[in-house]
Q: What sequence folds into this?
């Protein structure tokens, strides 16, 4: 049977692992960018045509996934004139974002390792205890994750701007993230609503996975009980 400390550790590790995995998936999901650019009229607001916007996205994704910082120093056509897209401040901030993503990836590996180790320890128990453990895991994690996600989604809907602000204060040790929407194309392309929608989608995906885990573990328990 799970102890209280084991429940808290397992639930927190699995919840954060799924949440961060979804965030990393969204970063590399082109269809999300396309939806947001269409919804927010990004091409019209920036003067960058639709196809060039996706070249920008491809370069940013490559920049995040490669060791080199070359891709972020890009040019594009703005109102038909080829220009350097990001200034030095925006580039330095994007390097900070890249480092943050690398740290998130490493932390996520540690979280999944923790989840797997705890599960392996529990699976090493006798068959009857494994069945009981599955039921405990399913119920405990479902209650934990759904409670947090519902609360988080409500907070996002009510005060995303403050959450977004404090996220930057905690994540970065400089003010490079404070950009001017009149002149800086990074914030013109990726407006605040873009990140709010991303956060909501990550929350919804994490909720869906929580439901799937709950139903799957319950089903496994029932199958073994019948056998």
A:
């Amino acid at each position: 049977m799970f102890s209280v400390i084991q429940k808290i550790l397992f639930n927190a590790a699995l919840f954060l692992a799924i949440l961060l995995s979804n965030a990393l998936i969204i970063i590399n999901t082109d269809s999300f960018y396309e939806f947001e650019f269409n919804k927010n009229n990004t091409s019209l607001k920036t003067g960058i045509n639709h196809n060039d916007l996706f070249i920008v996205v491809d370069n940013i994704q490559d920049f995040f996934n490669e060791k080199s910082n070359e891709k972020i120093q890009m040019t594009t056509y703005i109102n038909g004139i080829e220009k350097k897209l990001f200034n030095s401040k925006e580039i330095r901030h994007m390097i900070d974002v890249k480092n943050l993503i690398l740290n998130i990836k490493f932390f996520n590996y540690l979280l999944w390792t923790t989840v797997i180790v705890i599960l392996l320890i529990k699976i090493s128990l006798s068959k009857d205890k494994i069945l009981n453990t599955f039921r405990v895991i399913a119920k405990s994690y479902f209650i934990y994750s759904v409670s947090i996600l519902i609360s988080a989604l409500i907070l996002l809907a009510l005060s995303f701007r403050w959450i977004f602000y404090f996220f930057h204060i905690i994540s970065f040790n400089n003010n490079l993230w404070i950009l001017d929407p009149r002149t800086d194309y990074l914030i013109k392309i990726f407006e605040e609503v873009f990140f709010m929608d991303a956060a909501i989608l990550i929350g919804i995906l994490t909720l869906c996975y929580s439901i799937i885990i709950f139903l799957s573990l319950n089903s496994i328990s029932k199958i073994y009980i019948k056998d």
